[in-house]
Design goal:
Layout: H1 2-40, H2 46-58, H3 62-77
C-alpha cells in the first residue's frame, strides 16, 4: 500500500513539474504574440511599429513587457 501511494505522489509531482515548465514556456510566447497584435494595431507609424516588432523579437520577454508598460501608453497619448 505504501509503495502504491509513493508512486501516486511521485506521478503527481511529475505532472506538476511538467505543467509548471509548460506555463513558464507558454507565458512568454503568449506575451510576445499579444504584443505583436497590439503593436500592429496601434496608431504608430510604420517605422515605429517595425522598431517595436524587432525589439520584441530580439528581447522576447523584455520587449513585450516594455511595450505594454511604456510603448502602448505613449502610442495612445499621441492620438490626443
Amino acid at each position: 500500500m505504501t509503495a502504491a501511494l509513493a508512486d501516486t505522489v511521485h506521478e503527481g509531482l511529475q505532472f506538476a513539474a511538467v505543467a509548471g515548465i509548460a506555463l513558464l514556456v507558454a507565458f512568454p510566447v503568449v506575451l510576445f504574440i499579444g504584443a505583436l497584435v497590439s503593436v500592429l494595431g496601434s496608431p504608430l507609424g510604420a517605422g515605429m511599429k517595425f522598431m517595436w516588432v524587432v525589439f520584441a523579437f530580439c528581447a522576447p520577454f523584455l520587449g513585450p513587457m516594455l511595450w505594454f508598460l511604456v510603448g502602448k501608453r505613449s502610442a495612445e497619448a499621441s492620438l490626443r
